[in-house]
Amino acid sequence: MGSISSAYRVIHLHTDGRTQKVVFSRFCSPCDIKELLCTAAGLSRNTTISLLDSSGAMVSIDPTMPNNSERCPYRVLPLPGGHLTDKEELFQNVLTQVAEQFSRAFKINELKMDVTNRLAMLEKRVELEGMKVVEIEKCRNDIKKLREEMASRNNSFLEENKKLVPRRDVPSYPKYHLSQETVEALRQPTFDVWQWEPNEMLTCLEHMYHDLGLIRDFNINPVTLKRWLLCIHDNYRNNPFHNFRHCFCVSQMMYSMVRLCSLQEKFTQIDILILMTAAVCHDLDHPGYNNMYQINARTELAVRYNDISPLENHHCAIAFHIFSQPHANMFAHFDPDTFKQIRQGTITLILATDMARHGEILDSFKQKVDIFDFSNEDHLTCLKMVLIKCCDISNEVRPMEVAEPWVDCLLEEYFMQSDREKAEGLPVAPFMDREKVTKPTAQIGFIKFVLIPMFETVMKLFPQMEEVMVQPLRESRDRYEELKQIDDAMNEVCVCVCVCVCVYVCVCVYVCVCVCVCVYVCVCVCVYVCVCVCVCVCMWVCVCVCVCVCVCMCVCVCVCVCMCVCVCVYVCVCMWVCVCVCGCVCVCMCVCVCVCVCMWVCVCVYVCVCVCVYVGVCVCVCVCVCMCVCVCVCVYVGVCVCVCVCVCVCVCVCVCVCVCVCVCVCVMRLYPICVCVCVCVYVGVCVCVCVCVCVCG
Description:
Elements: H1 2-7, E1 8-15, E2 18-25, H2 30-41, E3 49-52, E4 58-59, E5 74-78, H3 86-106, H4 108-129, H5 133-155, H6 180-186, H7 198-211, H8 214-217, H9 222-234, H10 244-260, H11 263-266, H12 269-281, H13 291-297, H14 300-304, H15 310-323, H16 336-352, H17 358-369, H18 377-392, H19 400-424, H20 439-459, H21 465-581, H22 585-668, H23 671-696
Parallel strand pairs: 1-5
Antiparallel strand pairs: 1-2, 3-4, 3-5
Helix pairs in contact: 7-9, 7-10, 10-12, 10-18, 12-16, 12-18, 15-16, 16-18, 17-18, 18-20, 20-21, 21-22, 21-23, 22-23
């Protein structure tokens, strides 16, 4: 619906007291619309009319006229003198037919429709996207420049040697004027690459191409060279090591080797151009992870290049992708054969920077160096491959203050890769593991077995390299070996301190355990003695009480018996008197029986009391004996637990010390110290065992 409403206009007219709807295309001409309105109003199509809205205002008759509604229709007002005569109408019809014939012959309608469609597309684009004020101003400036350029071309043709106008969309960098001191320093391998900003490094690279005569000899456009260098800078990533500064470092070393070894006398200018271009492009778009990671992680690069030097192939592809851009192709005017030679040579040199091929390339060069022939193309190619390899890993040739930061950058990049490999479960190279590698250990082997043999082999062709390049490598090797010795000594001191601390801690633990055991045993003995004394006192008191009770009972019984006897005697006497007096023998017998019964009751009571006292004493003795047994069992269990705790502590300490000893043996190779530690631990364990045995005894 939106497309239909935008392609057609709907107009409502008030004619003869009714509202009529008129629909026409927005691409109709004003004349066609006027004729349509005349027909709708019932007028001749050649009638001159005006269109009024509800307020009486005149409305323009054209495709852009606004829509209205049925409530607000337009009114068609014929103008006086607008009717044509028959002749004029006939003449008008003839002209209309002629115009239609011309339109058909020259396809005016099709052209008009095409132009209208294009205008509609432009209008729609403006409506959708909009144009900012800055863009409009830029377009105006471009149009103004284009007009000026066209005017100048109309006046005179450009000369062939006239400089090209730089592209507006390609940025530029400030032009620095290098001092003579900088120019001389740039030719030396000792050049400090850390003091220069990217724009200054671009200027230095530009100077190298000019100074070597490459711009002059190959008629390279300086503006194109500048654009190419800008593209090179933009296609290096911000890695810790493989970045644009590394590119400049390698290119500057190649430039200094060309000057130092007078390579321009040995090679052609095309070879020099290949060497410099390969040095500039050799690490383009390096991702910061080496070939081994690409292959193990099965990245897109490894799959694309079949695990064969994926990064180096990628560098070549990016380099010649840049050359495919017209504004950055400084080889655009070269003939196909020359460009093919440059392309093949550049690819060969960049692929040679793969360290996986180091042994193969160096062995091939060693076979040729003694019979080297500068006229042999294979020999020259092999030499160029070795030269770019030397430049690629030449940081240690530079002074220590320049070379050492590069080692830190390289290790940082290595550690980033190893951390990622650990996170992804991939194999980790030992020389990249932050837990295993140090700066001296990483550099000593690399300098001794990679750099020095390669530079000494090249030195056979160019003896002037010994003082400037080979000797600094030897000094760097010696410096790192001294650092390694210092680190080893520090490690030994640290290990000795750690061992001493461990032994001291073990002795302290042994002493503390022994003291604790002794104190615990003393306390247990004291408690045992106190309990035994208390039990003995309690038993003695119980016996004494029992004896006292028995004595008292005996006295009481005796007193009772005596009283009973006395009473009986008295009663007997009385009875005797009575018998004698009264002669009552029966009564006397009864009284005697009563007395005997009373004595028997007293004896029974005494026996019961004695039995109760005996049972109480026995129960008291049993309770005391049980208490003594429980106390003894608790003391024995406490001693056993203490002994077990001591043994466990000793075993744990021994295990910790043994682990430390194993670490020292495996990592530090400190056998004498480890033997001493083992002896100390053994003596400590023996002492601890003896103490425990004594305590148990």
